[in-house]
Amino acid sequence: MDKKQAIMAAIVVPLIICAAASVYFFIGSLEEENKGNQTIVIVTIVPQQEFVEKVGGDKVRITVMVPPGASPHTYEPTPSIMKEVTKAEMYAKVGSGVEFENNWMEKIISNNRDMNIVDCSEGITKIGNDPHTWNSPVNAKIMVENICNGLVKIDSDNADYYTQNKDNYIEELDTLDKHIHHKLDGFSNRVFMTYHPSFGYFAEEYNLTQLAVEHGGKEPTPHAIQDSIDESTRYNLRYVFVEPQFAAEPCKTIARAIGGETASMDPLAMNYTSNMKQIADSLALEFEE
Fold this sequence. Notes:
This protein is an alpha/beta fold and 289 residues long. The protein has helices at 3-37, 46-56, 79-85, 99-111, 137-154, 159-184, 200-205, 222-234, 249-258, 272-287, and strands at 39-43, 60-64, 90-93, 116-119, 191-194, 209-212, 239-242, 261-264.
C-alpha cells in the first residue's frame, strides 16, 4: 500500500465505522421506541400467548405467567414475573378455575389495579370443574374474541387492526376445527386414556370419551392404576397419553400391562394450531383398528 492509499484508508475506514455505528444505534433506538409503544399484556398459560399475538401483532408485548413445561396446577410465580405485572395494561386470565389463578389472581391484581382484566372463558359453557377450556378450537375462538375486545377497550385507536387480525385468526381456527373433524369423525373407536384429564373439552367437541389415570391432582394409587389397566383392556386401548407436565411412570406401568405404549400429548404447548393437529393425529393412531 502506497502513502496515498494509506491516507485514504485512514480517512475512509473511520467514516465507515462511524456510519455503521450510526445505523446500529438508529435501528436500536427504533426498536426501543417500538417496544415503548407496545401494549404490555400478561397471560396465564402458553396457548394464550398465541391468541394474543395473533390479535395484537406487533402492537403488543406478552408475558406468560406459567412458563413452558410448568403446570398451572402447582406453579408459583417468580418475583421477576410479578414485577412485570406492575407494567401491564391488560391481564388475559383463562377464567375457568385454573388453580394458578385461584391461588394468585388476587395478589396479581393487587400489584396493578389499573390493568384491564379480561376473562377469556366468558361465554364458554363449562364442563363441571374442568378448567381446560382452551383445548377446544371452538372455545379458542371465543377466547380470541374476548382478547380482541379487551385490546380494543384499552387501545381503541387500533381497533380496526385488532379486529382484522382477530377475524383472520378465527378463520384459521375454523379451518383447524374442520381438519380435526375430518381426521376423527370416521372412527367407530372413540375412547382414549390420558394421565391428567386435560382434554375434556376436546372430547366433548369431537364426541370422544376421555379416560383419566389420575383425578383431583393426586398421584394415582395402585388400585387406581389397576382400574386404568382394566379400562384399557375393556376398550382395547394401545396408547396411554401422558402430558409432559406430569410424571410418566404410572402411564408406563399401564402401557406395559396392556402391551401398549405411552405417547406425549401436550395441553399447554406453544403453536396452538399445529399442536391441536398433532393431538388429532395422535388420537387417530389410537382409534385405528
